[in-house]
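Standup notes
- HV: blocked on the assembly model, inputs below
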Amino acid sequence: MSPSEHKSVDSATSTPLVSMRGIDKIFFGSYANRGVDFDLMSGEVHALLGENGAGKTTLMNVLSGIYAPDAGSIALEGREVSFRSPRDAIESGIGMVHQHFMLIPVLTVWENMLLGMSGVPFVMKKNEIVERIRALSERYSLAADPEARVWTLSIGEQQRVEILKMLYRGTRVLILDEPTSVLTPQEVRDFFSALRIMTAAGHGIILISHKIDEVLSISDRLTVLRKGRRVDAVGASGVTREALAEMMVGRALKRVKRPEPSRGGETIMSCEGLRARNDRGVVSLRSVSFDLRAGEILGVAGVAGNGQGELCEALSGLRAIDAGLITFKGERVSGRTPREFIRRGVSYIPVDRKGVGLASNMNLRENVALKRYWKKPAAVRKIFMNWKYIDGLTGRLTDMYDVQANSLSSPVRALSGGNIQKLMLARELSEAPAVILAMHPVWGLDVGAAEFVHERIMEERARGSGIILVSEDLDELMEMSDRIMVMSGGTVMGMVERPGGVTKEEIGLMMAGETMEAAR
Amino acid sequence: MDVLIPILAAAVRSGTPVLYATLGEILTERSGVMNLGLEGIMLVGAFAGFSVTQSTGSPCAGLAAAFAAGVLVTLVHAFLCITMGANQVVSGLALAMFGGGMSAMLGRAHVGRTIKGLSPFKLPVLGDVPVIGPVFFNHDAMVYASYALVALLAFFIFKTRPGMNLRAVGESPRASDAMGLPVVRIRYLYTLLGGGLAGIAGGYLSVVYTQMWVEGMTAGRGWIAVALVIFSIWHPMRAALGCYLFGGIDALQMRMQAAGTSVPAPILLMLPYLMTLAVLTFISIRKRQGILLGAPASLGSPFRREERE
């Protein structure tokens, strides 16, 4: 019940806070972790680095009691333990902040803190609890209003609440799964200084990440995983980012060739004074105006949920707009059906691949046919399908994009996330689209596949396609884009004409709602 | 005023069985389980209450039996929906039909008999307040108990630790599970409790309100309770309001029939149901305007730990 009252910092050469030895975790006959060793000392930030699917999260799910390991042992301060549930782990002082927050939106912050804790009285003493949370949030400089309802908080605030929740439970080992992916560069800085306060107080922090620069700037040590095995554990000082990249990927990284900035061709699509609501009926696009030119990549930066999704939906005809105008090659298209947009060559790669992008219970060939089933050569006399043609096409696409599937007739649901993603991209990037609306096109792909997708997008750009690239990864945006548009709260904060001439910090300030003039 | 008071008093009495069922369903739905079988559970409760009261002579034993019968029937629904992850709508509808059929079959021998139920008594002090006294405080013990239950549940759901756990499980079972809450146990508890209250609702109809058994005697009150849960936005206080509104229209239509208006009886009988439709339409309009926030987020969806979204 008492918030974390930890002992003084352990003497320097004490036993590790956490020691994992020879951890195996097997899913469906294949190793997600194999013989992994991992140590965490008190007072250190230890980064767990690796590509998507390297087994980082699996290893930490083992440590936090969600998965039981198939082999190996875990010791806390030299004492061997075995957890049967997350609750066991929490009670031993291990807390994990998942990528998808485990918060109940309708409850207040203080209610979320108490959830599942033992020893809470039947009728809760709110004032006492709120006071305790205030003290805790001040001590670790993690600002959060205890009486606010969670759904009213920004993603950054929710993350702080998650961390406070763990500290409130007396956590000594804090596991953070990709914590910075939802933050602006400024928020990342504040976040890192809060981590330092925690380590100074004797906590140990495990940081799961795939961003090399970031972990180099905050961690004391790094453990690199690749394909479920530990490659090495090294001190953060005296290791280069190139060496780490090679450890992660197993080969030297190709730097994506930064394209010659393109002035672009003529305007292919443009919108003026766009205003639209989100699914809850809240206005989430406000007087958005810009032109998209043929042969350019227009990057869209912004913290998730600041109107990027609604913008892409409006531009693909899926979301009705309240006001404004969308034109395609000078012709008004707003108010038309999505098929009219598709007919003109607008391709849309949504975030929700399984829900919006593909029909997950239908098979590969049917999903490939979904975007062209009404026209030749996929359709024959408007009624019959030309399956021979569709099969041929699906086969070519899956070969080209290296989609791993048992057969063309297996349901898309049965594919892994990366393969679903590749199938979606294969369909949307084929047929020479005039406009590509791509939301996070490389999320969940390994480095090789991501390189391939970036190359394909570059090819489409060279061919003359106008591309909108929505991403939360500023490095990706700055490398790929000809121009960058920054969105915050549904409005355009600024249009960066030359990505080379602006810093990440400046873009971050605009993401946080500053105008371009104020950010410079 | 003198004309109104008996109608208002009748509204409270007529609204009480619906109130018990609505409160029960609020608990069930707050945990994320939808139980559309209220109509059937109420009928089983009504029959159980009637037959036990008849054989023991004790209305209290009858109401206890109604509660137990409600829990027992709901156990089927709980097992199918929580343990097996079955479709809650289908299971609920099946339960509604099953309850109706079973009570009709078992109750055939009891049709036409009467029992002695609870009698009304005036509460001291409160009962003497003008208007309020005769309307609210001149009833049987079950009406008074329902007042207490409304206040108790409002406090329980929003102020206590188990109430918070209940809301959390209905909102996000996955996050609740990660925080160590026993999701399955909590859902069972409130689904069965809700079923028990629906049983009492039926028992009140047969043991107290009519003091006899008639096949299908709930006459759609179970369905109305389901609608009133939405009207109440899952809040016990608003549930009471909705139930007395329903009771008022019910009482009014009976008065009008008794007074012999020229309006045909079937149309009068339709009034409470028409009101329910009107209320639902009104709520949907408000919801589309984004004024009302909706149901518990996980309502109707089963939870399995190993399944990822």
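- HV (later): unblocked. Confidence is low (pLDDT under 50) at residues 1-12 of chain A. Residues 267-345+431-519 of chain A form a domain with the Rossmann fold fold (CATH 3.40.50.300).
- Next: hand off to the docking folks.
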